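Thread: quick sanity check before group meeting

JM: Hey all, I'm pulling together slides for Thursday and realized we never actually wrote out the predicted structure for the chain we discussed last week. Dropping the sequence here so it's in one place. If anyone has concerns about the input, flag it before I start.
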Amino acid sequence: MSDCLFCKIAAGEIPSTKIYEDEYVYAFADIAPQAPFHAVVIPKQHIASADEITADNSFLVARVFEAVAKIAKQENLSDGYRVVNNCGEAAGQTVHHIHFHLLARRDLGWPPG
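JM (edit): ok, ran it. Output follows.
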């Protein structure tokens, strides 16, 4: 999608601090971190939100979570981490490209706040 911020980041058109990349997934440092470690993990293919996951593209979400496990090992997040997805504006989704926040290195209480 030509006007999507995260598509442009994944394509290298907008600079980011890369944390992980493979054929299907790109992860980068969040520009407004909510924890000492805060990555944004996205599929390179555009999916607007969790509402648009289908049988044809759900493998990309699986690839995202495979990447999360690799990032956790790479970054030594053995004390634990949280993966967050916001779906829709009322839930706090501000970029309409499905993405997952990977947060770690601080206590993450429940409910999140």
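AS: nice. DSSP finds two helices and five strands in the chain. The helical segments are 5-10, 58-74.
JM: adding both to the slides.
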